[in-house]
Write a structure and sequence with these properties.
By secondary structure, the chain is of the alpha/beta class. The protein has two domains: 148 residues, Aspartate Aminotransferase, domain 1 (Alpha-Beta Complex); 237 residues, Type I PLP-dependent aspartate aminotransferase-like (Major domain) (Aspartate Aminotransferase, domain 2, 3-Layer(aba) Sandwich). The protein is 41% helix and 15% strand. It has a seven-stranded mixed beta sheet, with helices on both faces. A four-stranded antiparallel beta sheet has the order 9-10-13-12. The longest helix has 25 residues.
């Protein structure tokens, strides 16, 4: 029996529903299954293949042994609330009140979900930069709001200020910003951030900034929009320990925002998960307090890995958009004779022993053709794995 009900509209809106009413597997599941079947190196799904700082792992063991295994406070464990405030001050010079301006969530995903549900009403518009992280479309659909995409175009994926001005209007309630950006690895420049702040004020909108890759930047240090003049009062800043400390399975995320905004989001969050991850919260607090050299080391190591993969892709004959941050690189398959990245991704395990995902997976139906030949590769893997992937890719050069 095919169920009916509002969820059908929601799931169809998010592109998750097949015509027969069953849930379609995501491209990530499909490509990971292909990797498992073919034994190819999986550079499709973006998760690290090794553990992060040992101090962080040890702190979690200690917390479990110390009996921190029951529900933590609704806003988060005080250790972590204070560590987040210290982190915002140390890296960005922001004074954040740990008691009223911070909320710990079940990963960045719950911070985004609770924010979108708290700040929008059905029919409101939410502006996103396209291509976008797949959860955004799903969450906006669940809220009954309408997604308004602004294109990021090959090869540097910088937004056009005129496109942005056209997209934001009085119906805009939220602008979602992902900087550094998944899937393209682009980072926003100062002018774009200033324009976003100006537009948020003019149209009474919120900026919801997904900064999970804040420490994974290569060219220049990250600047949160909330740390810029006029940004703070309009911005919900979201981050997570998952990408920085290679602990994606722990799902410890957080947000910082003005006190009344945090309270509004908390009213939603308490009915989503209520709370989560009590022993992992003090462990992530430990991570946030680690020395500058650790954060530096994480970025420099990732930069070296980026260079291995970019080298392999170039030798193979791809055009490459070299990322400023995140752990993804986008390459154009046209020089290799593939106009359809999906087709290339299906052939890639056989041709090069590598799995990747088409960028069209991050694009709504309307604009998919603009991204048809682009492929996303992840480089959050150990160096020998990336070396092997790079030499596999070189086989494409024939
Ligand atoms: C991985 C990722 C997330 C999810 O973060 P969690 O802390 O695992 O919920 C959110 N946004 C982007 C852009 C990501 O790449």
């Amino acid at each position: 029996m095919t169920p009916t009900g509002p969820w059908r509209r929601t799931a169809a809106g998010a592109g998750l529903l097949r015509a027969d009413g069953t849930t379609a597997p995501t491209i990530f599941a499909e490509m990971s299954a292909l990797a498992a079947r073919s034994g190819a190196i999986n550079l499709g799904q973006g998760f690290p293949d090794e553990d992060g700082p040992v101090e962080v792992l040890t702190a979690a063991h200690e917390a479990i042994a110390a009996g921190l295994n029951q529900y933590p406070p609704g806003r988060g464990v005080p250790d972590l609330l204070h560590a987040i405030a210290r982190h915002q001050h140390r890296f960005y010079g922001m004074a954040v009140d740990p008691e009223t301006e911070v909320l710990v969530t079940a990963g960045a995903t719950e911070a985004l979900a609770a924010s979108i549900l708290a700040l929008t009403e059905p029919g409101d518009e939410v502006v996103v930069f396209e291509p976008f992280y797949d959860a955004y479309a799903g969450l906006v659909a669940l809220a009954g709001a309408r997604l308004v995409p602004v294109p990021l175009r090959w090869p540097d994926f910088r937004p056009d200020p005129d496109d942005l001005r056209k997209a934001v209007g009085d119906r805009t309630r939220v602008i979602i910003i992902n900087d550094p950006h998944n899937p393209t690895g682009t980072t926003f420049d100062r002018e774009t951030r200033e324009l976003l702040i100006e537009l948020a004020h003019r149209h009474d909108a919120f900026l919801l900034t997904d900064e999970v890759y804040e420490h994974l930047t290569f060219e220049k240090p990250h600047t949160p929009i909330a740390s810029m003049p006029g940004g703070r009062e309009r911005t919900v800043t979201v981050s997570s320990g998952g990408k920085t400390f290679n602990t994606t399975g722990w799902k410890v995320g957080w947000l910082t925002a003005p006190p009344e905004v945090v309270t509004a989001i908390l009213t939603v969050k308490q009915f989503l998960t209520y709370v989560n991850a009590s022993p992992f919260q003090p462990a992530i607090a430990r991570g946030l307090d680690l020395g500058e050299e650790v954060f530096d080391g994480i970025a420099r190591e990732l930069e070296a890995r980026r260079d291995i993969l970019v080298g392999g892709l170039r030798t193979a004959g791809f055009d490459v958009s070299v990322p400023d941050g995140s752990y993804f690189v986008v390459a154009d398959a046209r020089p290799l004779g593939f106009a359809d990245a999906r087709e290339l991704c299906l052939a890639l395990p056989r041709l090069a022993g590598v799995v990747a995902v088409p960028v069209s997976a991050f694009v709504g139906e309307t604009n998919r053709s603009d991204y048809a030949s682009l492929v996303r590769f992840a480089f959050c893997k150990r160096r020998p794995v990336l070396d092997a992937a790079a030499s596999g890719l070189r086989r494409l050069a024939g």
